[in-house]
Amino acid sequence: MSASANATPLIAPMRRLLYVAAFLVFLAGLVLFVFPLRTAEWFAWTVNPPMTAVFLGAAYWASAGLEVTGARSADWDSARLAVWPVFVFTTLTLGVTLLHLDRFHLSPDNAPLAQVATWAWLAIYAIVPLAMLVVSRMQIRSRRPDPKPRSEGRPVLPPALRVLLAGIAAVLLLYGVALLAVPVSAATWWPWPLSELTARAVGAWLVGLGWAAAQGQLSNDLRMVGPVARTSVAFVILQALALLRHGDALAWPSAPAIGFITVLLAIGVAGGWALALSRRR
After folding, report:
1. 257: Cβ–Cβ under 8 A, 6 or more apart, which residues?
2. 67 in Cβ contact with 85 (< 8 Å)
């Protein structure tokens, strides 16, 4: 897709950063989603039960698509919807990591690959948020002066879809913040058991996804809706596969399990609807 005459082109450092981020989250998702029973040997910390691992792996893989789409964007307006959720998520995950550093595989008693994964994890989450800030500043400073300032315009999505996205964003953001702030209490409303670390790791993802949904419903350009829509659809499909593999971890038919499925269905409907609109633009 070519940039419009007034759009700010995506600078090369931002494009490269998004591609690197996509590759890194793909690797994390590979271990978590494909090998959920091997996290004690191959991942930065031991993730139990396996349903938590595949849930996190699905989120990583879905976000890889968002970052690749952002990297392939012709201009900053299209790419920034991928940048800010990534920055929010990586910053929160860095905080979660430092708070629970004792749970990570830093001891010589851990498997060698797990130790390597842990040091790589620490380096990535220390560097990526800072790199996002630096490169975003470069990107914003590269903005072209517009002799005819454009109006921001109104959101382009139908009101019903905007309401649905706003509701999804509110649920994800509020519950994600609760998992981060009071993980033990908030985890009682999750459909399978979570430790403090995994509750906060899930919370960081929910806040990042909620941030993306909030941005999407306010968009005034359908180009900006497509990446979030594709990510939403991919997330739901991957979570459905995760449930097929380890869905016995959910307490059926409890309120948390029903709520989890309901939110997944809402995300799927919103993502599919927005994707159809973006393809017809």
Report:
1. 191, 250, 251
2. no
pLDDT given for residue 145 in this prediction: 58
Would you say 155 and 220 are in contact if contact means Cβ atoms under 8 Å apart? yes
Exposure string of 171-194, with b = 16+ CB inside 10 Å and e = fewer, is: bbbebbbbbbeebeebbeebbbeb
Contact 118, 106 (CB under 8 A): yes
CA–CA distance, 66 with 232 (Å, rounded to integer): 9
Read off the pTM: 0.90
Structure tokens belonging to residue 82:
């991928």
Distance (Å, rounded) from C-alpha 120 to C-alpha 2? 36
* CB-based burial label for 57 (10 Å; 0-12, 13-18, 19+): buried
Q: What is the DSSP string of the chain?
A: -PPPTTSPBPPHHHHHHHHHHHHHHHHHHIIIII-GGGHHHHSSB---SHHHHHHHHHHHHHHHHHHHHHHT-SBHHHHHHHHHHHHHHHHHHHHHHHHTGGGBS-STTS-HHHHHHHHHHHHHHHHHHHHHHHHHHHHHHTPPP-SSPPP-----S-HHHHHHHHHHHHHHHHHHHHHHHSHHHHGGGSSS---HHHHHHHHHHHHHHHHHHHHHHT-SSHHHHHHHHHHHHHHHHHHHHHHHHHGGGS-TT-HHHHHHHHHHHHHHHHHHHHHHHHHT-
Q: Per residue in 205-256, pLDDT tens?
A: 999 999 988 887 777 666 677 778 888 999 999 999 999 999 899 988 899 9
Tell me the C-alpha distance between 137 and 176, whole Å: 27
